[in-house]
Amino acid sequence: MPHRPPPPPQVFDDVATSQRIGRLALGFCLGSAAVLFALHSTKARARPAGPADGAPLMRAPLQVVAPVDLKRYSGLWHEQARLPNRFEKQCAGHVTAEYTPLPDGTIEVRNRCVLEDGRIDEAVGRARTVPVAGLPGAGRLEVRFVPDWLGWLPLVWGDYWILKLDREYQVALVGTPDREYLWVLSRVPHLDEATLQAELEYARTLGFDVDRVVRSTPLPGA
User: Fold this and answer.
1) Average pLDDT of every residue of the chain
2) What are the pLDDT digits (tens) for 37-95?
3) Is the torsion defined by CA of 64, 96, 193, 72 positive or negative?
4) pLDDT by residue (tens digit) across 157-179?
5) What is the rounded radius of gyration, in angstroms, for the C-alpha atoms of the chain?
6) CA neighbours within 13 Å on the CB side: how many for 150?
7) Rounded CA gap, 188 and 196, in Å?
8) Do the domain assignments include residue 53?
9) Same domain, 82 and 184
10) How many CB atoms lie within 10 A of CB 74?
11) Residues 28, 82: one domain?
């Protein structure tokens, strides 16, 4: 076997090596700075605004009435006021909601409103109770207006929270936890102004934008 000469020794280039190390160190520092800046920006965006920057403090979670006797709550309600919503955009006249208990423990929801041409628009849905730990019979419900075969989809259910209810079950304040939807309901077709204002002022204390409230059209002669 022929003898191969040993490879020549590698020459250590101090200048080239130092330059490579310097470039690596600079890249690491710049990359770290970029990551820290991104994290800081994300935290700044995620941090809730406070009084220092002119934004309101975070609002407390809404509380619901408990307990609510759903049998007493059932029946016909007349809408007195609401925050604008796409579901009732076409309503030009009186609005009602009727709740009927069903044998399976759910509630039939039948909403009606008068359209601009005088016709009655009707939507029939289903409501179910949502258990709340430590609050048996809490007035927290979910409502859907899609066919029964789609009821298994979580996204078709909307929040329906009873935020205020008098002992006689004559006036109710209903809203959603995001404060985007609000209704004032009463058993009588036309609620007196003082009571309606009291309900709206209470909603204001909860963080609802009651300045945007739309008054519902009362029944003729009510």
Assistant:
1) 80
2) 333 433 333 333 333 333 344 578 999 999 999 999 999 999 999 999 999 999 999 99
3) negative
4) 999 999 999 999 999 999 999 99
5) 31
6) 10
7) 12
8) no
9) yes
10) 15
11) no
- Whole-number Å distance between alpha carbons of 208 and 176: 10
Please tell me whether residues 178 and 86 are part of one structural domain: yes
User: Are residues 155 and 108 part of one domain?
Assistant: yes
Domain of 165 in residue numbering reads as 70-215
40, 78: one domain? no
One domain for residues 106 and 210: yes
Measure the CA–CA gap between 31 and 36, rounded to whole angstroms: 9
Contact in structure between 124 and 110 (CB atoms under 8 Å) = yes
Do 33 and 100 share a domain, yes or no? no
Neighbours of 8 (CB within 10 A): 6
Q: Are 174 and 163 in contact (CB under 8 A)?
A: yes
- CATH number, domain containing residue 145: 2.40.128.20
One DSSP character per residue, the chain reads -PPPPPPPPPPP-HHHHHHHHHHHHHHHHHHHHHHHHHHHHHHHHHSPP-GGGTPPPPPPPP---SS--HHHH-EEEEEEEE---GGGTTEEEEEEEEEEE-TTS-EEEEEEEEETTSPEEEEEEEEEE---TT-TT-SEEEEE-S-GGGTT-GGG-EEEEEEEE-TTS-EEEEE-TTSS-EEEEESSSS--HHHHHHHHHHHHHTT--GGG-EEPPPPTT-
Say how many domains are in the chain.
2
